[in-house]
Structures are given as C-alpha cells and as structure tokens.
Amino acid sequence: MQQNSAAAAKSAALSRADTKNIVKEIAMKALFAFAAAVFIMAVGVICVYLLAQAIPTINEIGWVKFITDEKWIIRSGRFGIGSLVIGTVLSTVGALIVGVPVGLLTAIFMAFYCPAWLYKILKPLTNILAGIPSIVYGYFGLTTIVPFSAEMFGGAGYNLFTTSVVLGIMVLPTIISISENSLRAVPKSFYEGAVALGATKERAIVKTMFPAAGSGILTAVILGMGRAIGETAAISLICGNIAQIPDSLADPFITLASAISSGMGYADPYNLERASLIAVAAVLFVIVLIITTIVMMLKKKKY
Amino acid sequence: MAKELVLKEGEVDARDIVPINRQSAGDKLRAYLNKPFSFVLFIFVCIGAALSAAAVLWVLGYTFAKGIPNLRLSLFAWTRTAENLSMMPALINTVVIALMSLLIAGVIGIFAAVFMVEYARSTNIFVKIVRVAAETLSGIPSIVYGIFGLIVFTELFGWGYSLMGGILTMTMMIMPLIMRTTEEALRAVPDSFREGSYALGAGKLRTIFVIILPSAMPGIISGVILGLGRVVGETMALVFTAGSPRNALHPSGLMEQGSTLTVYMYALISEGNQHAGEAWAVAVVLIILVVLINAAAELIGNKLKKEY
User: Fold this and answer.
1) Which of A248, B91, B124, B283 is the most exposed place for a label (fewest CB within 10 A)?
2) Distance, CA of A263 to CA of B238 (rounded, Å)
3) Stretch B161-173: mean pLDDT, rounded?
4) Residue A78 above 70 pLDDT?
5) How many CB pairs under 8 A join A and B?
C-alpha cells in the first residue's frame, strides 16, 4: 500500500513538472510568434497612419490635381506632385545611368578577373562605400561636384547632373554586391561549357553567365533604384529644391523625398501645407510597396 | 637534407613538364587580337572596376583631407558651447539611441527569426506574410519612417521630439535586418545538433536556448552590428523624431530631445559655410565609426564561424 501511494505521488509530481514544462513551451512559442507578428503590425501601423492622413488630404486637393498639376507651391495652395514625380524619375534614371554600367563591370571584374590579393582590398572598399552615411555623400557632392557642375553648365551647380553623379556613386555598392553574388551563384559548369565550346572568357561571361544571373542582376538594379528613389539627406543638399520640371541636366529640380524634407521646415502644421507633405510620404510608401512586390516576384527563380 | 632527385631511364622530372593548357601573356594578347569584341570588353571591365575603386578613394580621401585637419580636442569636450561646437553630446545621443534600438530590435528580430526557422513551416501563410512585411520594412525610405515617427510618436503620443521617438523609429528600421541575418544563422546550424539535443531528452525550448542560439551566435552578433552601422548612419528618420536642437546639452532623459552625429552634421551644414570645418570633422568621425563597426561585424562573422 505504502509503495503504491509513493509511486502515485511520484507520478503526480512528474506530471506536474510536465504540465509546467508544456505551459512554458507553449507560452514561449506564443511569444516567438508574437515577435514575428510585430513585423506585420509594424507595416500595418505605418500603412494605416500614413494613408489615414494622406487619403483625406488628397481628396481635399483632388486626385487629378494632386497627380497631374505640375506646380508644387504649398505656400500658395498648389499641391501638384507632377514635377516631384518627374524629378524623382529623372534623378533615379540618372543615377542608374551612372551607377549600373560601372557597377556591373565591377561585379564582373570581382567575380571573374580579380586576383585574390586585389579582392581582399576591393571587397572591403565597396563595403565601406555602402556604409558611408548619406549625409556625408551629400556634403561631399556639395563641395566637389556642385562647383564642378557650376563651372561646366553655368548656374549654381545644384542640378540634375550633380544629383545623378552623387546618387550613382551611392547605388554602386548595392549593384556591385548583389550582382557579384548572383554571378557567383551561377554553376561553374555553365562557364566551363561555354569555354569548352571555344568561347573566349568574355564571350562566355556575356553570353552565358550574364543571362543566367539575369534575375539577380535585375534585383540588384531594382534595389539600387529603391535606394535612389528614397534618398533624402544627400539629395536635399544638392538638387536645388526648386519644384520644376528640369529641361536639361543643368536645371535644378526636386524629388518626392527632398520635397518632404525641405517643406517640413516651413509648412504650416494646421492646414493642407503639412498634410500635403504627409501625402507625398504616402506616395513614396506606395512606390516602395510596388518595388518590394517586384523584387519578391523576381526572387522566386533559383538554381 | 634535401634528397637529390635520381631519374631512372625513361623518366622525366615533373617540374620540367610545361602544361599545354596554360596561356602566357603573349598568347592571351594574340587571342585577344583575333577577337576584338572580347578585348574591348576586357578593357571596359578593368575601367569599370578602376572607376569604382576611384570613387571610394575619392570620397574617403576628400573627406579625410578636409576633416582630419579640423579634428581638435575641443570638439570632444564634454559640454557643447557656441565656441567649441563639441560633438560629444551628439556622440552620446548616437550611442544611446543605437544601444536602445538594438536592444529592442534585437529581441524582436531574434525571437521572430526563431519562430520562422524553428517553429513554422515555410509554406505557412503566416510565415509568408511576415516575410513580405519584413521585406517591405527594409525597403521603406528613411524619410517615410521619419514622417511616420513624427505623426505617431511626436504628435499622436504627444512626446514631442524625444530620444524615445528616435529609438522606436530606428527599432522599426533595423528589425528586418536583424531578423534576416538571424534566420540565416539559425538555418546554418545543422539538424544533427537539434536531433542530438532531443535524443538527450531536452525539450524544444531548452534546445533552442542552450544548443541552437549559442551555435548561431556569431551570425546573430554580426547582424546586430550591421544594424548598429545603419543607426549610426541614419539622418532623416531621426530629424523628425529625436529632433535637431540647436543648443542642446546632454538630454537628461529618454523623453528629452537630442541630435545624433548625422543630425548634428546636417545642422552644421544648414548653418552655411562658417561651420564647414566642424561638419567635415563630424564626417570623419562618422566614417571611422561606420568602418570600425563593419569591420567588427565581418571579423566576428568570420572568426567565430564554425565549420560544421
């Protein structure tokens, strides 16, 4: 009898420990899942607060006027983001024209030509380029490329050319590192096959490796584009902050992002002036959502 | 004592054999002359790489040349005055904002990664949504974070410009980075570790905290350090949340406003040319910080990386 009750007590104690453990396991699992859910909540909260402020504002301005009006003079009630969007597109295209060819050629060099000792220098250098704060790029552009541009084109030097060059340097590390990785991810047999068929090294790279790494390289370009579209601290110092559609490389202009940062300083917080800037931020957010979707779709292709 | 090589009849010293598939520089040049396209491309590739290297050296060299002569001890004085323009308060604010946001984002990011790798199946719809959310967060430009922080922390919560607003905004920015690097580190831990732990009778939780997380630690730490680099380099998300006070001393608490190094540099530039020297000095400090941080991340990632 005594033995039996001792065994029963023991098993009761065991199951109590078990329950405690099970509760702990489930509680922690819930905590981990909650941490993951924080990401969804964060995006949700950003979405809700930006759009909740932006949509009534745009309704008040009028959707057609907001999108097509090319005048952005918030002091006198002209809230057309036309020139802002065009400025963003032009500076992004400019940055890609400067950054993509140089970046891709550098990626090819690092993946196929670079001797090991040089790689050990070049790789950290491109990493440093990625780490330099954008405000430093902006100030660098302000003191070196702005005067150069002023001499070359006349005017003050705050223009599309200056911005494209600085942004081009800023997107370089993104383009280099992602396209280098995707070039390296292509199976070596592709390259060997091409060379065995008599292709020169360059032909093998351009005709075989490059198309095979295509989606990765496209991702690199699009991510570089994302960086150029959202860049603010650097651009606001060098673009001139004049809301107009630039006729040439020598004209000052403004982007969506720099319109927000330059407008925040003087916008009246109690009327449409401030609200319109928040609406511009919402437009940027939507553009980024679209880019993210494209990148996610591109990522599906794998070897 | 080196042994003299004795060759028997009919044998050849292997060192004298010339491989026929090795090209000399002359061979290469001749091959290129027949294929002008390839040669031109080769030249372009070299030029491209040289341009990239030149861009880095130009930015770094110019900044150092302008900034190092302006680095003086009074720039690091404890309190900032109109004369010394010390960056010390900004430096300390940077450290405070960075550490606090890393702490919060670290816990959320690591826990979320544990859930994604150890608990959920990758086909799970919840996991897919979390992944999309993380990608979205990492793509949002800093000015949009800044405006969001302004709407929510500064105005809706009524905090005004505060370090806390800056910390929470930066937390949202670096969460996805920490989650992604932690996920990679967790996936690199071989399944045999998990199986061994279960076989010894450990529960899932014990396995995670005693076996998996410690094994994945180098990867996690290097991800956290990369996040640190992002916080140090951030400007626009902090201008509208932590504020850019013109004559701030040290903030007395997390609900006070305070500028980080980047925001301080932005303020110095905005004041025109008279503070150019100080702005360059701050730029040099920023670059040195970022380079050190990146080097630390790489070192920890490589040095402690175990080969399984």
Assistant:
1) A248
2) 16
3) 92
4) yes
5) 254
Per-residue model confidence (pLDDT) at position B284 = 94
Query: Based on the domain organization, do A39 and A145 belong to the same domain?
Result: no
Residue numbers in B near A200 (CB within 8 A): 31-32, 35, 38
ipTM of the complex: 0.87
Q: Give the tokens for residue A224.
A: 């570089």
Chosen from A39, A241, A287 to mutate, greatest number of chain B CBs within 10 A = A39
Q: Find the closest chain B residue to A137 by CA distance.
A: B59
**Nearest-CA distance from B5 to chain A in Å?**
33
Amino acid at B147: I
Summarize the confidence of residues A268-291 as an average pLDDT. 87
Distance between A182 CA and the closest CA of chain B, angstroms: 17
DSSP state of B76: G
Structural domains counted in chain A: 2
Do A162 and A238 contact (CB within 8 A), yes or no? yes
Instruction: Give the range of the structural domain holding residue A44, as residue numbers without chain letter.
Output: 2-61
Residue A106 with chain B: CB contacts under 8 Å: 48-49, 51-52
Lowest mean pLDDT among A97-111, A257-271, A282-296, B116-130: A257-271
pLDDT of A150-206, one tens digit each? 988 878 889 999 999 999 999 999 999 999 999 999 999 999 999 899 888 888 998
Count of residues in chain B? 308
For A200, the closest chain B residue by CA position comes to: B38
Distance from CA of A282 to the nearest CA of B (A): 8
**Whole-number Å distance between alpha carbons of B287 and B262:** 11
User: What pLDDT was estimated at residue A303?
Assistant: 43
Query: Distance of CA A277 to CAs A233, A257, B160, B242, Å?
Result: 16, 9, 19, 19
Task: Find out whether B49 and A109 touch, Cβ atoms under 8 Å.
Answer: yes
pLDDT-based confidence at residue A7 (cuts at 50, 70, 90): low
Phi, psi of A225, rounded to the nearest 5 degrees: -60, -45
In a domain, residue A74? The reply is: yes
Choosing from A13, A35, A61, the residue where a domain stops is A61
What is the pLDDT of chain B when averaged over all its residues?
86
Helices (H) and strands (E) in chain A, counts: 14, 2
Looking at residue A293, its pLDDT comes to 86
Same domain, A25 and A79: no
Residue A213 has, within 13 A of its CA and on its CB side, a CA count of: 27
Question: How far, in Å, CA of A230 to CA of B143, rounded?
Answer: 7
